[in-house]
UniProtKB/TrEMBL annotation:
Homology family: Belongs to the RLP family.
Residue ranges constituting the Disease resistance R13L4/SHOC-2-like LRR domain according to the UniProt record: 54-196
The protein's name in its UniProt record: (rape) hypothetical protein
Lineage: Eukaryota, Viridiplantae, Streptophyta, Embryophyta, Tracheophyta
Organism: Brassica napus
SUPFAM superfamilies for this protein: L domain-like
Alphabetized UniProt keyword annotations: Leucine-rich repeat, Receptor, Repeat
InterPro entries (UniProt xref): Leu-rich_rpt, Leu-rich_rpt_typical-subtyp, LRR_dom_sf, LRR_R13L4/SHOC2-like, RLP_Defense_Trigger
């Protein structure tokens, strides 16, 4: 039985029970919510192992936020009564085990929740096509359907949800053609994530249309873009860019001075150019991209995380790495490095905690002198990836 005392909580407005590993049916058998807790406006039960069907949800008529993420709900134990929550603004059913849209469109009737502003169904096992009825939720600001098994086309009608700020269809299996021009009316869009696991989605990024939004995050790998989208030239507020392809845009980092995360892995970019002056970038993953400017440490002194693995780096490392005094993670594995590490690296990078050097040609004592006693460093050096601590 889960929380039988709730039946007497007449003035309760917020119920927050995160990560308690509560299991079993909820509500407890014989426990009536109805009029006793009608005042609840926020109901957060994520990170538990609940199996019930929540039939009493229909009594929570003032509910505005419902978070049932990270439980074990599936199509056999549906969450009932959602359609009665007319004031609901945020619904999170992510990381459960839903497989079909039948329950969500039918018994759940999510598309009838016209006040809904945030909907997160990510990390389930949803199959089938994008439900067009979702485009009738004209107040939606957040729509996250990522990490499911959805197929079919991405409907152009998604551009009719003009209030959208966050759109993630990432890590599904969408196919066919989709034009970014469909999003031209989404002037408030800040986050755009779209990808296809089978690489069968063709995204059109050029046209006569104009995209007025200023993105903070763009992640559109495996979309067969062909070339870098021209609209990125006009983006000035990017914080995260994930796996673009083509000729590296020399203007990308100069235009976006607040860019923090740049993921370039497996890109084979040509003509990679660092910005003209020092940049605020915090994380750079350029693994398997054949990129390694020798002045990287001077231009990107604020890096915390740098992955340069699988880049065919040969010989000695440049001394500019020692200028990255805030860096705590450095991956140089799977290259052709030999000799000793530059003194500037071991002495200058005093925040470094993890250093991966495996699968190189380094032998013997790779440090030019004993490490400073101010820190301990976890190092992966052996061919097999053995881990050792050097203090």
């Amino acid at each position: 039985m889960v929380l039988p005392f709730l039946s007497s909580a007449k003035s309760l407005t917020t119920l927050f029970l995160r990560g308690n590993n509560m299991d079993g049916p909820f509500p407890a058998k014989g426990l009536l919510f109805n009029f006793l807790i009608q005042q609840i406006v926020s109901f957060q039960f994520f990170l538990n192992i609940l199996l019930g069907s929540f039939p009493e949800l229909k009594y929570l008529t003032n509910l505005e936020l419902l978070d049932l993420s990270r439980n074990r709900f599936d199509n056999s134990t549906p969450v009932q009564g959602l359609a009665d929550l007319r004031k609901l603004k945020a619904l999170d059913l992510s990381r459960n085990e839903f497989t079909g849209w039948g329950q969500l469109q039918g018994k759940f009737r999510i598309c009838e929740l016209k006040n809904l502003q945030e909907l997160d169904l990510s990390h389930n096992q949803l199959i089938g096509e994008f439900p067009l009825c979702l485009t009738s939720l004209t107040r939606l600001r957040v729509l996250d359907l990522s990490s499911n098994q959805m197929t079919g086309k991405v409907p152009s009608a998604i551009g009719s949800i003009e209030s959208l700020e966050y759109l993630s269809l990432f890590d599904n299996d969408f196919r066919g053609f989709f034009s970014l021009g469909s999003l031209a009316n989404l002037s408030n869009l800040k986050v755009l994530k779209l990808s296809s696991i089978s690489n069968s989605l063709q995204v059109e990024s050029e046209g006569s249309w104009k995209l007025d939004f200023q993105l903070h995050v763009i992640a559109i790998p495996s979309c067969n873009l062909g070339k870098l989208p021209h609209f990125l030239l006009h983006q000035k507020e990017l914080r995260l860019v994930d796996r673009l392809h083509g000729v590296f845009p020399f203007w990308l980092m100069d235009n976006n001075t607040n860019l923090e995360v740049l993921l370039l892995q497996n890109n084979l970019f040509t003509n990679f150019q660092l910005p003209k002056s020092a940049h605020r970038l915090l994380l750079l993953d350029a693994s398997a991209s054949q990129l390694f400017p020798h002045d990287i440490g001077w231009i990107l002194p604020n890096l915390r995380h740098l992955n340069l693995s699988k880049n065919s780096l040969q010989g000695n490392l440049p001394s500019s790495l020692g200028n990255m005094k805030k860096m705590y993670f450095l991956d140089l594995s799977h290259n052709v490095l030999y000799g000793k590490l530059p003194r500037s690296l071991t002495m200058g990078c005093y925040s470094l905690m993890f250093l991966k050097l495996s699968h190189n040609k380094l032998r013997g004592n790779i440090f030019p002198e004993p490490l400073p006693c101010r820190y301990c460093l976890w190092i992966i050096t052996s061919f097999q990836g053995g881990l050792e601590m050097v203090c």
